Amino acid sequence: MTKRRSVINPFVAAFVLALACGGGARAQTAELDALFDRLAEAGPEETPQIQGQIAAQWSRSGSAAMDLLLRRGADAMEAGDTGLAIQHLSALIDHAPEFAEGYNERATAFYTDGQVGPALADIRTALSLNPRHFGAMSGLAVILQELDRPEEALEVYGRILKIAPHAEGVVDAMDRLSVKLDGLAL
């Protein structure tokens, strides 16, 4: 029988702590709270729409110039130019360091560019600013899986399900990880 790791990597522990703790005042508006309440009660058919409404709220920085930098970063990603995306998103973060979505988007660009360390750092910041950011949590779970940290990935996926019980693909990912872990325990 293979012994499972009993000590959690301190870096992963910091992510889990960020998820468990409150904070992120910008992410705590009454409108977002209402959307999250709806998301917790939504069925599978309603979940994507509500998640989209939440993501739209998160994409609003309060500044047209910052929103433009976010859009330019997203456009560069769509065009496959991760370097340009990272430049736009870094400029956004320089000018709006409290805007969680800038970090989340740049984490995606870093990850796509093969830069896992910077991606993890940006996910950590995004989650410290917005502990309910299920997109950042999903990215973290994927990276944890790739780093062969299935227990921690399962924990993050479980947190996503507490927020969005019908989040697409999460139960399937958890099932695959559970099979892997059960196989390791044989």
From TrEMBL:
Give a single Pfam family match: TPR_16
Keywords of the record, alphabetical order, are: Signal, TPR repeat
Determine if Transmembrane is one of this entry's keywords. Answer: no
| Record protein name field | Tetratricopeptide repeat-containing protein
Recorded hits in Gene3D superfamilies, A to Z, give: Tetratricopeptide repeat domain
Q: Show the taxonomic lineage.
A: Bacteria, Pseudomonadati, Pseudomonadota, Alphaproteobacteria, Rhodobacterales
Which region is the signal sequence? 1-27
- Please report the residue spans annotated as repeat (TPR): 100-133
Give the originating organism.
Loktanella atrilutea
